[in-house]
Write the structure tokens for this entry.
Amino acid sequence: MEKFTSHTGRAVPLRRSNVDTDQIIPAHWLKKVTRNGFEDGLFEAWRRDDAFVLNRPERQGATVLIAGPEFGTGSSREHAVWALQNYGFKAVISSRFADIFRGNSLKNGLLTVILPQETVERLWELVEADPQAEVTVDLEAREVRAEGVTASFALDENVRWRLLNGLDDISITLQQEADIASYEAARPSFKPTTTPVG
Amino acid sequence: MGRTLAEKVWDDHVVRRAEGEPDLLFIDLHLLHEVTSPQAFDGLRLAGRKVRRTDLTIATEDHNTPTLDIDKPIADPVSRVQLETLRANCAEFGVRLHSLGDVEQGVVHVVGPQLGLTQPGTTVVCGDSHTSTHGAFGALAFGIGTSQVEHVLATQTLPMDRPKTMAITVEGDLPEGVTAKDLILAVIAKIGTGGGQGYVLEYRGSAIRALSMEARMTVCNMSIEAGARAGMIAPDETTFAYLQGRDHAPTGEDWDAAVAYWKTLATDEDAVFDAEVFIDAASLSPFVTWGTNPGQGAPLGANVPDPASFEDPQERIAAENALTYMGLTAGTPLREVKVDAVFVGSCTNGRIEDLRAAAAIVEGRRIADGVRMLVVPGSVRVALQAIEEGLDKVFTAAGAEWRHAGCSMCLGMNPDQLAPGERCASTSNRNFEGRQGKGGRTHLVSPQVAAATAVLGHLASPADLSDVQQLVEA
């Protein structure tokens, strides 16, 4: 995973709540067996409409998505995170994220930032009035900054440490081999196995 | 202080607990399918890692599989590659796989329970959000992303933050014709699509205890639609009776030891939940969704709501967008909404009881002209049981299509899709825009409502059929 320390970029205001993962990346894209090449599938249905915010010329090259509440509800597909990253987004700001999507994003270095809905509204107004306005998402300072807006955000310290250092979860867990082995040795014999029977 | 069911199962799986870190949880059962696993296996290969516990891992093909012509090569080359990738990965890493054509193949959340692999007090994960289904057995079961799939393959553990607990207590008797699906749709409408975020839900109360295992699975399945990764029901005699004798259920002394343990799992009387919701079972009625998220639902007897009636501005905009997408006008009685298609199946309602319930309603009737009804069993075992009971004949005699097992039109990754603008009454779990096919419109319903809707051609409950005479000529 790439390290995330701080990012500054232009933003896309997505004034919709309950943006589900089927909207972020429709199911037919899930047939791919790679982690890349999903950028054209991002918000595919909505992008057929020329007026959709992502299609506006002034939003090209934007890297921060500012979305309505309950972003990422629905399916566990990590492809939704890959699609946002493949397209070029580095951070997503919302007042509420679905749990699985949030976990997936933080495991891939896509920073999902929770801010109060009032702050999201102020950021929407700012970037709608001035598409060139830049938004900074600073993980070291745990702060989102834009013209007239300075908002701190909370993030679990362990997650922040892994993001700042670009650490891979699996190698961290594999250091606990002794604990895993001793847990396995103590499991009761009635626990099921998938070994074929009969 | 006492502990809840979820806390007991959690505590029994902590491999390592350290200040300032998530708990490291042991995973008892890892279910795989073709869609969310290929990139995880690639990750293992890149790092030179193995699957740590192939004996706790099992795979099935479901999302992409066709439900017609399953003896022929899969027509869609991209779907074919994905299924072939799963086959190659399972062969390379030594994982048990039930492929298309195998008698144990089916939707991953139907297969685990019917094999007896899903057991009380276990931790179950799968790269699929409907893994919450398995919580019906008193398992702590939740959906994970592909990075976590790779993590479980490599370590058989997951670092997780301890969730909060929410009790959903449903007391009383469900009225005649009201099902587990209506109950969970009503719960989601009440607490919202984000109401369960950060929580494990525990469904409890006399109405829940009275449910069969299959109905309990329907309830737990849609916990994720309320934002909760997991939903659980305390194991009881109904659970034990379902499990006993299944392929992977314990036997002999192990069975006795298992049951003794399972009986300790129920939430203690003095345990405290972080949040509680109460529902009076008697107040429930057949429930349908009118919008484009599962929280946008109402009793079948209600009208399409007016977006102006929503106080929250985000909800109001969401309702406006939903009515536009769904092609509905505020104030229209839901019973007058005509459908083009009916889908009976999925991990929510694709089990034998669901097929029996739908068949009982279409038996001796014809589905309405211009309506296409697809019946897709959740697994090959479910299909074989239904055929043994003659349900396939009941459906085809009524004019429905009887198909092979798989996820099918729940998400339309295979050819079973709605055409743009088509409207479907579906027993599945998500009514998102385009979920069942680009431009398709989905109303989530119970199998009973689906069947009555197929017969009448508009959203309806079985009670609406009493004065209909559409008997098939002998």
Q: What stands out?
A: The radius of gyration of chain A is 19 Å. The first strand of chain A starts at residue 6 and ends at 14. Chain A has a mean pLDDT of 96.
